[in-house]
């Protein structure tokens, strides 16, 4: 989050230049590359209205407001939690090529520009628009911290230099067509348009899975799911925040019957593993039992709802495990 916040804030540097007129492509989804292998969206505005969001935003504040990042936010008078409404992210070439993150919200361009200029960003141009290369904090005097660009007073983009330059070119051309179903955008009809967040992945464009997949028991349950997902043609994930609960659903798509059966078995295995691991927490076990796995001729789906109490219990259990691992690692170093 610290890196994302820094990229987002610094992108407003370009407001030192004359602002361009608003265009139809001033929409985060319109800038997702048509050849993206993965794309996702998160409605931060939905999280703000949820009682469960308090902890998430508290963690975000601690991640962004420290040292130089704190000074940047103070000088720019920007509060990411309140000023960002929606985040869209995408990547090409299996995540190793162009990367892009687009933010919709409300910003104070001039203050952000003044704060970012002082940190040494370098101006470049692409498709007649300006973007900025960020300085790599780990290597004094060197670039390589990513690129950012101001698009409008409600939209900015950040990511790899190639990704940002491509987004500016797409905007100049009226968008990539992703928002109208081009490329990976063809999968958008498989997720709820009103979801608080979603993820789309074209599995056929990712590296091939190595090794075989086996259903071998609780210890390998998660690996089995990952292995089975490597065999599908595409998969989607979405979440819907409502009050103090979160509804989760995912789907893996394949025309092959054996692949669907394998994925279905793997998902049922991971649910069983979670139940076994939570035997001392009846409420958690009850919630996990409500998750349903189903299959048809096109996909295998899993869906269920976690209420606030269950989410807190799972978070507490995770914290306990991390504490135990840290304690064990400390004892080993001694």
Q: Strand share of the residues?
A: 25-35%
Number of extended strands: 12
Mean pLDDT, to the nearest integer, reads 77
Calculate Rg over CA atoms: 22 Å
How far apart the termini lie comes to 33 Å
Global morphology: globular
User: What structural category do the secondary elements indicate?
Assistant: alpha+beta
Q: What string gives the helices and strands in order?
A: HEHHHHEEHEEEEHEHEEHHEEH
Structural notes for this entry:
- It is a single chain.
- By secondary structure, this protein is of the alpha+beta class.
- The chain has 2 domains: 2-180, no CATH class; 208-329, no CATH class.
- It is 37% helix and 25% strand.
- It has 11 helices and 12 strands.
- It has helices at residues 2-10, 44-48, 53-64, 67-76, 80-83, 109-117, 161-172, 221-229, 257-277, 282-289, 308-333; strands spanning 38-43, 84-91, 99-105, 122-126, 129-135, 143-152, 155-159, 197-202, 234-242, 245-253, 292-295, 299-306.
- A 12-stranded antiparallel sheet has the order 4-5-6-7-3-2-1-8-9-10-12-11.
- Helix 8 (221-229) runs antiparallel to helix 9.
- It is globular.
Considering the chains and any ligands shown, give keywords for the structure.
single chain; disordered N terminus; alpha+beta; 334 residues; 11 helices; globular; 25% strand
């Amino acid at each position: 989050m610290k890196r994302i916040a820094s990229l987002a804030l610094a992108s407003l540097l370009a407001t030192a230049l004359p602002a361009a007129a608003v265009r139809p492509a001033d929409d985060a989804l319109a800038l997702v590359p048509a050849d993206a292998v993965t794309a996702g969206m998160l409605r931060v505005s939905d999280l703000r209205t949820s009682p469960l969001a308090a902890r998430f935003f508290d963690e975000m504040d601690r991640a962004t407001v420290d040292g130089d990042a704190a000074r940047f936010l103070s000088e720019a008078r920007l509060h990411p939690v309140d000023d960002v409404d929606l985040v869209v992210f995408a990547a090409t070439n299996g995540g190793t090529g162009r990367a892009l993150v687009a933010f919709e919200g409300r910003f104070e361009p001039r203050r952000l520009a003044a704060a970012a200029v002082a940190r040494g960003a370098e101006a470049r141009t692409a498709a007649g628009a300006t973007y900025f290369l960020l300085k790599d904090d780990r290597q004094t005097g060197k670039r390589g911290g990513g690129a950012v660009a101001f698009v409008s007073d409600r939209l900015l983009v950040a990511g790899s230099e190639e990704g940002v330059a491509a987004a500016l070119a797409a905007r100049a051309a009226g968008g990539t067509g992703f928002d109208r179903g081009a490329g990976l955008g063809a999968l958008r009809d498989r997720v709820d348009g009103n979801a608080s967040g979603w993820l789309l992945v074209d599995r056929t464009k990712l590296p091939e899975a190595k090794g075989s997949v086996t259903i071998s028991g609780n210890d390998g349950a998660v690996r089995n799911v990952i292995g089975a997902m490597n065999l599908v043609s595409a998969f989607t994930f979405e979440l819907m925040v409502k009050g103090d609960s979160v509804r989760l659903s995912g789907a893996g798509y394949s025309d092959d019957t054996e692949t669907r059966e394998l994925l279905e078995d793997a998902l049922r295995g991971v649910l069983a593993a979670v139940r076994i691991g939570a035997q001392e927490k009846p409420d958690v076990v009850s919630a996990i039992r409500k998750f349903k796995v189903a299959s048809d001729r096109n996909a295998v789906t899993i869906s269920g709802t976690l209420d606030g109490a269950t989410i807190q219990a799972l978070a507490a259990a995770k914290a306990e495990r991390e504490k135990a691992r840290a304690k064990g690692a400390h004892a080993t170093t001694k």
